[in-house]
């Protein structure tokens, strides 16, 4: 005797099925009041979590001078801890989705937040530089890497069918919004204490991580099926897939396959320079460099926060351009203009904010993550179904480049007494990235799957 299957749950049906004892339908005169889909609550919690993650990423650049003054550690040593943090953030990202598929989004994010809270909180007791590397570099790097792009991508992929692009854009903007909130706040906390006591700022970041954990545990769910719903916009109920045990192996296989092609190395190289000239250089060293010229730390941090505002507009515009222009030429233009602006930056640093510096901040903000849409488009063009995983590895190169320049910048400041050589070298690297982007050849068969075309492999 066969069992009658349950009817699928519609995306706009928030309550369980209500039927009378004899199966009669509810009277039409008493319609139920619809509530917002649970997906929006999940997206809101994700947004708040990513904003908190921006606080973890905002603190290292503010700690270089205070840690140097208190412990007399070299800026290269402090930069090395930041470089470990950035590198692990990137290297963890390709595996974060695998962890979420295996253990669930809620568990992975909650554990990651607690790891960040422990790593950040224990820094107030550290007395040696290796403790900074272990706590801020390793623990916070692993925790924040588990909430990288894979977090937002997994949430939007599971919970939304309609408005997926809009929600992805909003969650991407959360990082910039968090930077806008946390940078001025943390710099004010550091600057208001005598001798620039950094400990209250570290405790603030730790408490922010802990505060989000209850929201994640109570409101975040791994899949719409956990609460008997279809994804937002879906017409039919989608069963929850079983835990995936081979996702990590797939990530490795995608890396091995892509590494045999020339475009992968060109994309990874350009994106490594992108990370070096943004997260590694400007986000880490702009505040101490401006402070070297007499600018108050709060003013420098506020300028850095403004970059986060304009990178939202720059990313949206870049996505529009990517649909209409050659992505290789776009990347060449973005990197070329970024290199020119970095060459001029040493001439703009002063003890106060002036119009040319404001122009640099606006321009650099527009260009900050404009490279992301064309890079994703090129990954999709060459690697088809594996493009998201390949982009994860390209993103890992981005963070490794950021980590290297974070260390090199501090080392150069210790050696030369100024950051000027770093700005000029980074400008030259951007020129190299522009040339690398132009070298990437078009696929002979657009839209073909991950296997590279012969001319692509030779690029």
Automatic annotation (TrEMBL):
Keywords of the record: Membrane, Transmembrane, Transmembrane helix
Domain Major facilitator superfamily (MFS) profile: 41-445
Tagged with keyword Lyase: no
Low complexity composition-biased segments: 16-30
Bilayer-spanning residue ranges: 39-64, 76-96, 108-128, 134-154, 166-189, 201-220, 263-282, 302-321, 333-350, 356-378, 390-410, 422-440
Identification of the protein by name: MFS transporter
Membrane topology term: Multi-pass membrane protein
Segments for region (Disordered): 1-32
Domain of life: Bacteria
One cellular component term from this protein's GO annotations in UniProt: plasma membrane
Compartments in which it is found: Cell membrane
A single GO molecular function term of this UniProt record: transmembrane transporter activity
Keyword Transmembrane helix: yes
Classification via SUPFAM superfamilies: MFS general substrate transporter
One Pfam family hit: MFS_1
InterPro entries: MFS (IPR011701), MFS_dom (IPR020846), MFS_trans_sf (IPR036259), Proton-linked_MCT (IPR050327)
